[in-house]
Amino acid sequence: MTSPLADTLFAHAAETEQQGRPAALDVAHKAGAFALHDRTPTEAVQLLAEMARGCPSTSWVAGTSLTGKIFTRRTLGDVVGPDELMAGSGTPGGRGEQAFGGVRVTGRWANVSACEDAKWAGLALMVDGTLSWALFPIRDLRVEHTWSAVGMRGTGSHTLVADDVLVPAERVAPLDFSKLAGDMVLFGLTALAPVVGATLGALDVITAMFASDRKPYMSAYASMGESPSARTFRAEATRLARQAERTMLHLAATGPGDHGLAMSGAARDCRQAMELMLDLHGASGFAESNPLQRYWRDVAVASRHPHLNAFLAADRLP
Questions:
Q1: Suppose 23 and one of 16, 49, 111, 211 were both cysteines; which one would form an S-S bond, judging by CB atoms 3.0 to 4.6 Å apart?
Q2: What are the chain's domains?
């Protein structure tokens, strides 16, 4: 069963995808989606997964906002409002030069989710050879509309550009990863939770199909539920989705550690579950009017994020 939050976000999901940015940020805000840093990791991933059950893109935006706020809090302190949407990138796409009053920054950061809707952007950059973190008002940056992936279309993950922007000294500091060590698992979970939630959302679509009067194509069965094969496929898809959810919750409760393979395994479970559900729905599952294809595209794209990518996780093994 879905929640009112998931149902409301689902009602706006097609619009979110069409306009390329979340269409129900007010709903997410009221649910506390941009104040996740004050929740436990388990509470945070549960909310992200529930949101993704309705709209994976909106969930993804909330997850990246959480990551950006943690980076900012650990580096600069509590300088961003407790429930504000924040954009960010940990890739050092810019360079800074010391100047009177602060640091002058020039650079480009790709794939910055929610950069059109956030008030602040936290961005990694190099300052005098040191990896640093700077906090910018979005109004000081330029947005280049470069996001064109087939999935997660509603995240608005465009490119941010800084052209000789002066960042006050109090809003830029070296990144100390020893202060972030305890957060690394949560960073990965903010990517995994939307994938898990999207898979559960797809399962909701399949459950509704089984409850309808649809029957297997060219079959004597009167309903999907009468088909032993259909029931088997649905059961296996459910098992894989719930297995991924259990992994997510286990890692949230476990805390720091090298859990890359476990996260990539959960992402792979979600992809396999999606394939089974598409087999059940058949070619009609790819109709643009069918939400199943949106969940499938979102899972396919988000599950390849560096935090979840299987070969990258394998490369990190000693």
A1: 16
A2: 4-179 (2.40.110.10), 181-315 (1.20.140.10)
